[in-house]
Amino acid sequence: MLQADLYQPVSPxxxxxxxxxxxxxxxPAVENIAFAAKEGEILCLLGxxxxxxxxxLRAIAGFxxxxxxxxxxxxxxxxxxxxxxxxxDRRVGMVFQEYAxxxxxxxxxxxxxxxxxxxxxxRKVRVHDMLRLVGLxxxxxRYPHELSGGQQQRVALARALVQHPVVLLLDEPFSxxxxxxxxxxxxxxxxxxxxxxxxxxxxxxxxxxxxAMADRIAVLNQGKLEQFDxxxxxxxxxxxxxxxxxxxxxxxxxxxxxxxxxxxxVGEFPNALGCEEGTAVVVMIRPDDVHVVSDxxxxxxxxxxxxxxxENLYTVALPSGQVVHASESSTVVYPLGTPVRLSVVATHTxxxxxxxxxxx
Amino acid sequence: MTTIRxxxxxxxxxxxxxxAAIILLPLGYVMSQALSADPAVWSRLWNTRIPELLTNTIxxxxxxxxxTLVLGVSTAWLVTRVEFPARRLWEGALxxxxxxxxxxxxxxxxxxxxxxxxxxxxxxTVAGPQARIFSPQSFLGATLVMTLDTFPFVYLxxxxxxxxxxxxxxxxxxxxxxxxxxxxxRVTLPLMRPSIAAGLALVILYVVSDFGAVSLxxxxxxxxxxxxxxxGRSDTTAASILSLLLVGMALLFxxxxxxxxxxxRFYQTTGRYRTPERHRYGWMGxxxxxxxxxxxxxxSFGVPAYLLIAWSLSPEALATIDTRFYGFFGNTVFLSxxxxxxxxxxxxxxxxxxxxxPNWLNLGCLQAAYAGYVxxxxxxxxxxxxxxxxxxxxxxxxxxxxxxxxxxxxxxAALQSLEPALQxxxxxxxxxxxxxxxGIRQTWQRVTLPLIRSGxxxxxxxxxxxxxxxxxxxxxxxxVGLDTLAIRVWxxxxxxxxxLAAPSALLIVLLGLPTLLLLLSKDWRAA
Lengths: 360, 527
Known about the structure:
- The complex is a heterodimer.
- Helices cover 22% and strands 33% of the residues of chain A.
- By secondary structure, chain A is α+β, with helices and mostly antiparallel strands.
- In chain A, strands 7-8-9-3-10-11 form a six-stranded mixed beta sheet, sandwiched between helices.
- The longest helix of chain A is centred in the middle third of the chain and has 18 residues, at 179-196.
- Chain A is globular, with a radius of gyration of 24 Å.
- Chain B is 77% helix and 1% strand.
- Chain B has helices at 11-35, 39-47, 50-81, 87-93, 102-112, 118-127, 139-164, 167-175, 180-209, 212-216, 222-231, 236-267, 283-312, 315-320, 323-356, 360-369, 377-391, 399-424, 427-435, 440-469, 472-477, 485-494, 498-522; strands at 82-83, 279-280.
- A two-stranded parallel sheet of chain B has the order 1-2.
- The longest helix of chain B is centred in the middle third of the chain and has 34 residues, at 323-356.
- Classes of the chains: A alpha+beta, B mainly alpha.
- At the A-B interface, strand 6 and strand 7 of A face helix 19 and helix 20 of B.
C-alpha cells in the first residue's frame, strides 16, 4: 500500500487543519497546510529555502499568527484566527538553527533555565540526567562559547528536552555543523528521539537528512504542501515533478501513449496514469534505474562521468539530444564518448503530464 | 491557560508613541511658529540677515568639507596601508581632537593666532616686524578650528572602509599591472566613496550646527544667529524662522549621510578578512609621513592640550579651583546624570520596539527620536522654551526644561548604542525563553536585560559626556546662577581670560577621552 493515511483515527499529538499564514516580517506565506503527527513520530518538513517550512514551525510554536485554520496540540486548539495561546503555555520545545544558547549562562543554567518551579536539588538531578543522556557530563560549568558546534547543539537539545515537551521543534538542526559531524549527530539524535519517544517536527532543505531522520516527510513548495508520505514513497513515487526533482536526481523523458503503453526513446513503460491513446506524457527515471552497457553499434554516447566514490554518475546523450543520468558501480569505467546501450529497469513507473515540467 | 487576543495594544507600544510625540512636539511647535509668522517678518529677515547668514554658513561648511576630505582620507590611508614607527599609536592619536569641544579649540586658537600671539611672533621673526597673519576671528580662523576639530569623522569612516575593504580588489588591480598609486586612484578611492561622502556629510552637519566655535570667533552663521535672536532681541519668531532654515539644511545632510552609509554596506564585501599589505617607504618617505602626522596631531590636539595643562597650573588658574569650582563640577555632573538616565529610560522602549516589531509605526517613532540630530543646540533650546512658555509656563527657568532639552538633543547618541545592542541579541534567544515557559516580563528580566547591559551602560556614558560638553542650550535655558564647566569655559574665554578658562576646559577634555576608545573600537558616529 503506497497511500498513507493523512488523518489518524486516534487523536494525534499535533494536528494542523488547513492553516494559512500571511507574509509578515520577511517570512514566506503558507497556504492551506494540513498534516498530523502521531505520538513519538518524527516528521520532517522538507523544501527549498523560502518555501514556508520555518513559518509553519513558528506557527506551531506560537510565534506566528494563523490567518485561517487551526493548530491542535494534544487535542486542544492552540492557534486559530481569533485565538493564540502564548508560547510559554504550549509546552513545545524548540532548537533553533543557531541554537540560541544564552551567552550569559553556563551550560547547567542554560539547561535549567525553564525549571525555575523546581527545587534546587530536583533541578540539579534533572540537568545531570539530561547531560548524561546527550553525552555531555563534565561540561556543566562551561559557557556556550567554550563549546564546539556539536556540543552547543546537544546543550540546546537538552534544554528543550528537559521540559518534557509535547512536541519538539527542530529548525535546520544540522546546517551549522560540518558534514562529517552532521551525519554523526543525525544518527545520535535519531537514537535519542526514539529512546525518549519524543514527537518531533524537523525542518530541513536537505533530502538526505530528511530520509535519514523522518518517519514521514511533508514536501513543501512555495507555501503549499506537495506531498506527505513516508520517505520511500516520496522517493519512488513522487506526486509532482517538483517532488521528484527535489528529493534526488531525476530525468524526465518525453513519451506518447501507444497501444496502452508509454513509448519513449529509452523503452516502454506501463501506462500508470491510465492516459488515453496518443497523449503526450513524461516519464521520470532515476539514475539508479538506468544501467549502461558498452555497445559498439549504439549511437548513444557517454558525455560525462562524475566519480562519486562508490559509484560513477554517467551523463548519457540520446540521439535526440535528450540527456539521461545513470549510476554504475565504480569498478567499471567507460571513457567519454563510449557508445553505450541503456537498459531501464524501473520498479515504479512515475508518469506526469508534459506541462509544468521544469528543466531538469 | 491564559490566552491573548491579537492586535492588543501593549503598554510598551503606548509608551513608544507617547515618547515620540513628546520629542516631535517642540520641533513641530517651532516649525508652526515659523510658518505662521507675519510675512513682514519673513521679508525683513530675507532682505537683511538671511543672505549673509546663508552664505557664511555654506562657505564655512564647504571649505571645512574640502580640508577635512584631504586630512581625513590621507591620514586614514597612511595608518591602514603604510607601515611606519608607532603606527598603532598614531592610529589612536588621530581621533584625539574629538575630545576637544569646538569652543575649547576656538579659544586656544584665538590665543595662538591672536594679535601678538605666539604664531604671529614666530612669523614676524621670519617675515619682518611688520608682518601680520590672518585674524582668528575671521572666516579663515573658523575654517581652521572647525577643520582641526572635525577631520576625525572623515578619518574614522575612511579608516573603517579601508580596513573592511576586501584586499582582493587591490590585489587584482596590481596583478593586472596597475601601479600602486594608480590603484589608489582607480580602485581604492572609488570603493571608499560612500564612506567618505558619509563622513563629509557628518562634518557638514557638525559645522552647520556648531555654536561654540563660531560664537567665540564671532563668525556669523545661522546657528549663532538663532542664539543672538533669542538672547539679544528675545525675538522667538525670527529665531524660529532661522531655525526652520537650519533644520532644513541639517535634514538634507542627515539624509545624505544615511543614504551614503547605507550604500557603503554594498561596497564592503563579505568573505574572509585579510589584513592588507602595508607598504614600507624609505627613510625619506617615512620621515615625511611622520612630519605630516606630527603636524596634524600637534595642531589639533598636542599644542592645545599642552596649553590647557600649562594654563591650569598657572597661579591664576589654581586660585580659581575652590568650592565654587567644585560647585560647577557638581552642577555639570548632576545635569548630565539626569539627562543620561532620562535618555536611556526613554530610548530603550523605542529601540526595542523598532528592532522586535519593525512595522512602520515603530520605525517611525524611532526616526522621530533621531530628530535631535537636526536640532542644533540653540534650536533645541528654542523649541523647548517656546513650548514651555505656551503650555506649562510655571516650569520655565527650572532645571526640568533644561533636562528635557538635553534629552531631545542627545537621544540619538543613546539610541546609537542601544540599537546595535538589541540587534545583536537574536530574537531567537527571547523566543527560546518563551518555549521554556517564561512570560514576556520574565523573558525581559532574565534574558533581554542581562544581555543588553553593556550597551545600556555605553548609552548612558555617551549621553552623559555629550551633555557635559553642551553649551548653547545650557546658556539659554539654565536657571539663574546655575553654571556648568562648559559655561565657565565659554564665559572666561569670551573675556579672553585664557588661564581662568583652562581648568574647566581641561576637565572636560579629560572626561571626554573614554568616549574615544568606544569610537575607535566601534566607529560610532556619536561624540
